Automatic annotation (TrEMBL):
Domain Pyrrolo-quinoline quinone repeat stretches: 60-172
Pfam families in UniProt: PQQ_2
Gene3D superfamilies: YVTN repeat-like/Quinoprotein amine dehydrogenase (2.130.10.10)
Upper taxonomic lineage: unclassified sequences, metagenomes, ecological metagenomes
SUPFAM superfamilies, per database record: Quinoprotein alcohol dehydrogenase-like (SSF50998)
Protein name: Pyrrolo-quinoline quinone repeat domain-containing protein
């Protein structure tokens, strides 16, 4: 489960959806408060809704029961942006019993959802001297094989890959000396090549 669906392209395999809603709108089954403010989307897998939210400069990761909106658990994982629009931006990427998150400060976090605890935490933006624009970091992690992909930008590197199991650095790309943008990477296939694509402030990269 991840940002914009299985292929990160906004195309979903669901069938028999309504062509239009009734005039009075769909029935509201439940609503909830207390999980923090955010701009992110939810991810749902194995009968659990996952979402991020910000409270008092701390970003939280919440698990919610879809049938009744019951809050199953709620844990802090990172720091919110320092300047503008401090609410969370990252949509959780969930695979098996692991969830991957990027905080507003550029921390990459792996959460063991079965144990409800952080498995590893890397201050990626700080470690790789990332550069961002006035709205800071708005990226949702991409998983490729055994790697977590993040785009810090800056003068040290442009894109990095961390080990999904440990958070150790697997590779870093060369720098093109640009700030990161408010976008998330996608994986495409062209011929026999698999290409990770993202946008920076001034460049489209692959």
């Amino acid at each position: 489960a991840q940002w914009r669906g299985p292929e990160r392209n906004g195309i979903y395999p669901d069938k028999e959806l309504l062509d239009e809603w009734p005039d009075e709108g769909p029935e509201l089954l439940w609503s909830m408060e207390g999980i923090g403010k955010g701009f992110s989307s939810v991810s749902m897998i194995n009968g659990v809704i996952y979402v991020t939210g910000q409270q008092d400069s701390i970003e939280y990761f919440s698990a919610i029961a879809p049938e009744d909106g019951n809050l199953l658990w709620h844990i802090p994982y990172g720091l919110s942006p320092l300047r503008s629009f401090k609410d969370t931006r990252c949509t959780p990427t969930v695979e098996g019993d692991k969830a991957f998150l990027i905080s507003g400060r550029g921390e990459i976090i792996c959460v063991d959802v079965s144990r409800r605890q952080i498995k590893w935490h890397v201050e990626a933006n700080k470690n790789f001297k990332g550069l961002y624009g006035i709205w800071e970091i708005s990226e949702s992690p991409l998983l490729v094989d055994n790697k977590v992909i993040f785009t810090p930008g800056g003068h040290t590197t442009t894109m990095i890959a961390l080990d999904k199991q440990t958070g150790a650095t697997i590779w870093t790309s060369e720098t093109i000396h640009d700030t990161t943008s408010y976008a998330s990477p996608v994986l495409i296939e062209r011929g026999d090549k698999r290409i990770i694509v993202n946008i920076l402030s001034n460049y489209l990269i692959g």
